[in-house]
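Quiz preparation item.
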């Protein structure tokens, strides 16, 4: 597995925002979630 700078558990609203901001800052980011698609709860509501 390649090295990453940031690991984010949860791809809800907060997790997605963290991943976006980390990416903007040039960090290699791994986003992990239990759902099949990211933002599942946001899309439903």
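Solution:
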């Amino acid at each position: 597995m390649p090295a990453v700078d940031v690991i984010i558990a949860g791809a809800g609203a907060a997790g997605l925002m963290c991943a976006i901001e980390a990416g903007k800052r040039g960090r290699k980011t791994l986003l992990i979630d239990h759902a099949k698609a990211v933002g599942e709860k946001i899309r439903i509501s």
